[in-house]
Hints:
Blueprint: E1 2-6, E2 19-20, E3 28-33, E4 43-47, E5 53-55, E6 60-63, E7 66-69, E8 79-80, E9 85-88, E10 102-107, E11 116-122, E12 136-140, E13 144-149, H1 168-177, E14 181-182, E15 201-204, E16 208-212, H2 221-228, H3 230-233, E17 234-237, E18 240-243, H4 245-250, E19 256-260, E20 273-277, E21 294-300, E22 303-308, E23 313-317, E24 344-352, E25 355-357, E26 361-370, E27 376-384, E28 387-396, E29 401-409, E30 414-420, E31 423-430, H5 442-465
Parallel strand pairs: 1-18, 2-5, 25-31
Antiparallel strand pairs: 1-23, 3-4, 3-12, 4-9, 5-8, 6-7, 6-10, 10-11, 12-13, 14-15, 15-16, 16-19, 17-18, 19-22, 20-23, 21-22, 24-26, 26-29, 27-28, 27-30, 30-31
Amino acid sequence: MVLMLVVAMGVAIVPASPVKAASPGDVLINEFVSNPNPGESEWVELFNPTTSDIDLTGWYITVDGGALPLAPWLACSTTLPAQGILVFEPTGDWLPNSPTSCNITIFDGVPPGSTVIYNVAYGTGTSLQPPAQGTSAARFDPDTWQTGQSPTKGWYNDAGQPGKAPLLSTIDADLAGQGITSNIGELPNPSATPTGDAGLFFEKTGQGGFTLTTCLNLSNKATRDALENLGAMMEMAAASLKFDSDLATAMSALGAKLVMYGLDALGFTEMPDLIVKDDAGNVISPDDPNYPTITGKTYAGGAFTFSIDHFTQYEAVKAVAPPALPPKPRASATPPRPLNPAQLSVKYLKVSPQQTSAGQPVTITTNVVNTGDEAGNYYLALKINGQVEQSKTVSVGPQGTQPVKFTLTKAQPGTYTVDIGGQRGSFVVLGTGGTTGAPVNGGNIAIIIVGMLVLATVVLLMLRFRRPA
């Protein structure tokens, strides 16, 4: 008996939009709450009207001269999607409730020496009156502000209007019509979904579903379009859950918790085993570098739940006890075979992406393999251009494999070589205009300088001690 859950997708749809340098007006203040209800926070919503993603790393916002960096107070990511939204939400009371005039200004660097991207003023002495408690001031095209609005934190102020983004309640109703239950219409900030078990979930009653355990920005248009059509892309039968391959292609991997229902009706009485397959239906060995990390398996009331670090095809099968072996004839006692000590080595190396922009994360994955009969520890050193940048010590059981992941960023454009235990690779960091440069090699520069000093000293000594003619 098999229950198949085919999940060839990772529901964090982030299309490849180039990250651009911003000009004035490329990032707008879209809405803000300066006088929240008790227990709630003040926030400023940012909107990207362009067709390219914009990285807000290093940007600042000022309120009448007082400056705050954006990055620490942006959930999910510092990348503002094309036509998308991020919410800037520091702690504390930082926006005045009823000023005469207060300027909120966005800078693309440290103020005041950087470029002003957008500014809005509110107060009793301005055309934009301070919003009352629990309401917001909101911007509508073309740059028209209205106060006293019902807040739409993390979503579009004109949602639901013809030609505009849909209301999340509308998406929720459409999914319900496709037989899918979700919490998409109840999110407090759709531009930063909750994490863990409280994350965004989709479920077909009595069949199966998944919960996204990492943060997701629903203002990304590709994400929104895919979720609206999720029902058509999830094919479910009595013993299977399958996602359309187009959806799989559009989505990048994210961790999630999966659940299969109704296994008791199929005769499962204990924790099922899992068979993992690739998109072509080929079984993936646990020793394969592409084998996912599977944790938190539970089985109760016919529901089989487990967490994964990326999506592929999973099949639940009944755990089968090995057949009983016939008794062996008695033989003289022989000494047991001595155990081989731990023999650990590094196998496989993957660099993703192999080409990126300055300041963007690069993930390097490898496996530590133990071919011995005893557990052991292994020290891993990540070398970039021959220099150790990160290290980890991992424990690997007998005949086991332990995946290891490193993440780093580089600000200097150029080609970087990667070496972990003799496994080698490389990646390229693009500069302005997509060009590359050579990373600075401090060791080579130091050697050249020392050589020049030695040569100069030798010349001076030769001139000093040379006999006159």
